[in-house]
Amino acid sequence: MELTRLPLLKSALKSRYPQLAVFIVMLVGYIFAILAGLIGTPVGSHNFSIVFVWIGWWAILILVAVPFFGRGWCAVCPIPLPGEWLQRGAILSPPDKKPKWLNLRVPKMFRNIWLQNISFLLLALFSSVLLTTPNITGIILAAMLFTAIGLSMIFERRAFCRYLCPVGGFIGLYSQTAPIELRINDKQVCAKCEGKPCYNGNEKGYGCPWDVFPGGLTKNTYCGLCMECLRTCPHDNIALNLRPFAADLAKPSARMDEAFKAFIMLGSAMIYAGVLLGPWGALKDAAYNVGSGAWFVYAAAFLAIIFVVLPGTFRLMIFPSPIGRGAALSPSKGAGVRAFAALSNSLIPLGLMFWVAFSLSFVLTNASYIFAALSDPLGLGWNLFGTANIAWQPILTSILAPAQTLSLVGGLAWSARTAQRSAQEAHVSSVPVVVYCFIVTAFMLWLLL
Amino acid sequence: MAWILLGLLAAVVAFAPLPALSSPPQARTLRQGSAQAFEIDARQFAYSPSELKVNTGDTVTIQLVSADVVHGLYVDGYDVSVEADPGQSATLTFVADKPGSFRFRCNITCGAMHPFMIGKLTVGSNDWLYRSIGFSILAIIGILLFPRSTPITNYQLPPTDH
Question: A31, A97, A156, A314 — which has fewest CB within 10 A?
Fold first, then answer.
């Protein structure tokens, strides 16, 4: 179903003003979160930066935005805005075609999501401190803002969003499961289109900030839903469509950076569930005491699980026999790697549902902090809306376990179905992938229930 | 027909009584008939012991001893709590009449990792975990037995180079 056939929605998406209004609200909130982190109370559960970023924003992102709108968050994210405004030398006015600042192209070796994988892991290793310490959250938020500005001065388009943002990497991965997509209506129209204004820009708008040619879009991963192409296309050939969930996974990616992103996200959800929500105090101590010997052991174990245990087990299960492994590596090494990467796509729905199940527990338990932080965002004793003294109380805990089971079992079935499609294309059996998904799901159930 | 069978199996997994699994009381527990008493040390940001197992219907008494700052202990699902001042102890008593697995957690802000100061109480056996694993097995049996009716054809894996 083409949503852009709805005149009201289409005009709202083409106009810059509604998006700008949301952008400004988001940017104000973001800057306030930085300030709250830096000057507010050091008690995380009473500081706007912790409560609104890691409980409020996270809940909306992982439970609503990513599953249903894919990169919808990226469409309103405030982080690239100041840099983009400086890069363009304008906020709303049409481009003048003169490049601002250095306007360099990102080197080819960095045009993948490995840097995003690394930036996510760097944050993940320090997450126990990041999630609980307001000034660290404030510093990280500020660092992301200034890094985005710096990269906008050096490189063309949104280099930070596309290649470095630690959040954008997994949003892109999981956006493939969303029931919404931006695509073209007719390939021939794009093929004959002169100047490719959707990519290069024209008087109506800017060239794709995400460095994507919409005419070649086959999946959501790198489309930021910024709607510039909707504005610039002279042939009205851009459409925002409703579609079945996970339609992109019918065309599995064969990229190792994306394959490892799937393992990183799957493993991180499991480690967080054990460390943050489990009853093991020694694990929490190790994760929190950054720089201690225990933390180094924790970090090494974290990385080993993500880069060795999970992908290694997966590979051994897909190619169990030496003959099979040999066939995968030589003489057609590329085919084996592509099969591994393509089958890893099966883990995308499961990983998303792992994060949903983990986040449900974390968010429902701590959501009541939002009301107190709303009235007293800096922890200075204010009571702006009369809710500052609302006592902590978990909400909806009676439905938590069934909801988590539904998420995890649903994710397992979804991944198993995806594996059948991917395995068919890779000419291998889907059974090992399904069994792998079952094992990690059973482990996650044990961690959460 | 097969889907109906799977549905019936799912209903069995969901509602059939499970065989009683032994859940012996753990160390530092004084067995008092149907009463269970625990002494739990609380310090930033962990409980010791952090995992408790009791039988359904037991009267549970928890003596919370705080080693450093003020700590609380709130039991999810039972909505009961207790607070202990530094170096002091406080007692919580309740009847564990709801079977299953429940988190208990600190409900007094006690430092940075306070939201993650968590323990686990298992009342009887953790039936929901076993049922959930049963659902998982049924789900993959269903998926494996009934593959997609419309296989994708004429699609080639993309090259790794992008």
Answer: A97
Amino acid letter, residue B66: S
Check CB contact under 8 Å for A132 and B115.
yes
Does a structural domain hold residue B7? no
> Does the pLDDT value for residue A323 go beyond 50?
no
Task: Give how far A143 is from chain B: nearest CA, Å.
Answer: 22
In a domain, B135, yes or no: no
Confidence at residue A337, expressed as pLDDT on a 0 to 100 scale: 85
Rounded mean pLDDT, A29-40: 97
Which of B46, B114, B160 is closest, CB to CB, to A45?
B114
Q: What angle do CA A84, A86, A90 make, to 5 degrees?
A: 85
Interface confidence, given as ipTM, is 0.86
For residue B105, tell me if it sits in a domain: yes
Give the CATH number for residue B111: 2.60.40.420
Facing residue for A279 by CB, picked from B120, B132, B157: B120
A289 touching B, CB under 8 A? no
By percentage, how much of chain A surpasses pLDDT 70? 96
- pLDDT tens-digit series, residues B96-141: 999 999 999 999 999 999 999 999 999 999 999 999 999 999 999 9
Q: Phi, psi at residue B80, to the nearest 5°?
A: -125, 150
Q: What does the alpha-carbon distance between residue A351 and residue A412 come to, in Å, rounded to a whole number?
A: 9
- CA distances (Å), B107 to each of A168, A281, A283, B17, in order? 34, 16, 20, 34
Q: How many CB pairs under 8 A join A and B?
A: 146
Please state the domain count of chain B.
1
Burial of B153 (0-12, 13-18, 19+ CB in 10 A): exposed
Please indicate, yes or no, if residue B129 is contained in any of the structural domains.
no
Residues 6+ apart with CB under 8 A from B78: B94, B96, B98, B102
- pLDDT at site A72: 95
Percent of chain A with pLDDT over 90: 85
Query: Which domain, by its residues, includes B77?
Result: 22-123
Question: What pLDDT shows up at residue A438?
Answer: 97
| Whether B77 and A277 lie within 8 Å, measured CB to CB | no
Are A430 and A408 in contact by the 8 Å Cβ rule? The answer is no
Residues A333-362 have a mean pLDDT of 91
A16: number of Cβ within 10 Å = 16
- Residue of A106, A162, A365 for testing the chain B interface, max B β-carbons within 10 Å: A365
